[in-house]
Design a protein that fits this description.
Helix 1 packs antiparallel against helix 5 (123-142), helix 2 crosses helix 4 (95-106) and helix 2 (39-60) runs parallel beside helix 5 (123-142). 46% of the residues lie in helices and 10% in strands. The protein is an alpha+beta fold. The longest helix has 27 residues, at 9-35. The chain is built from 8 helices and 4 strands. The chain has helices spanning 9-35, 39-60, 75-85, 95-106, 123-142, 153-159, 163-166, 177-181, and strands at residues 117-122, 187-192, 199-204, 229-233. Strands 1-2-3-4 form a 4-stranded antiparallel β-sheet.
Length: 234
């Protein structure tokens, strides 16, 4: 008797590859937006990119059909499924970076914001951590011991020297991560009020911050009074 809960290798390959392709599209769009300081849009796509990559890893390793369509608002459930089907690789990721991705998911739907949200980070460090995370997942999936799928949009873009991928990418440009993370950087602060549903984005200009990197990206918690601030209400 046929077990309807079983998932075929072909189905896993199709769905997993499809999720990776969508994740890469979100990732490359996020890089473009973040490098051009379109912060809210870039954060949103960074969150969906990592989410889709994690779901791809889950699908590739499924033995039977399971519910895995969780988002970053239910990140612990994604972690549980990863542990069940293969390995929870999110333990390798920067917890500050993951916290930003969780908040980025929340700001997709203003009507569901239950309390004020504040995010403060440095753009260069965030892009660096995004690049590290996607590269880590790509390499993990490409490993034959895990999945063995190396024919991806990401690998093709590397082969083609795609400028959209290589721009400001410390991994592909073979820069030391600590040196990259400690470059002069620009801080961004995002605060969303629960009562007004108005997002205030403050952009610090001048690039006068240098942060020590100890394995976690720095939080941008305040503005210096001598820096030029620009407020945008969206």
């Amino acid at each position: 008797m046929k077990d309807d809960n079983l998932i075929t290798w072909t189905e896993k390959l199709y769905k997993g590859s499809w999720l990776m392709d969508l994740g890469y599209r979100d990732y490359i769009a996020a890089r473009f937006l973040l490098n051009n300081h379109l912060i809210i849009q870039g954060l949103t796509l960074a969150s969906t990119a990592v989410e889709k990559y994690l779901k791809a890893l889950i699908v590739f390793n499924l033995k039977k059909r399971e519910k895995y369509h969780y988002h970053f608002d239910r990140f612990e459930l994604l972690k549980d499924i990863l542990s069940k089907v293969n390995k929870d690789i999110t333990g390798e990721f920067d917890p500050v970076f993951i916290e930003i991705l969780e908040n980025a998911f929340k700001i997709r739907y203003y009507d569901k914001i239950e309390k004020p949200i504040f995010m403060g980070f440095f753009i260069n460090q965030f892009i660096g951590e995004l690049d590290y995370t996607i590269d880590f997942i790509e390499r993990f999936i490409a490993n034959p011991q895990n999945v063995g799928n190396s024919l991806t949009a990401y690998s093709s873009a590397i082969k083609d020297n795609d400028l959209q991928l290589y721009e400001n990418n410390f991994i592909l440009n073979k820069e030391n991560k600590k040196d990259y993370m400690e470059k002069t950087d620009i801080g961004f602060s995002i605060h969303i009020q629960i009562d007004s549903v108005v997002q205030t984005q403050k952009i610090v200009k001048g690039g006068s911050y240098r942060n020590k990197y100890d394995g976690k990206i720095s939080k941008f918690t305040e503005f210096e009074p001598n820096l030029l601030l620009k407020n945008n209400s969206l």
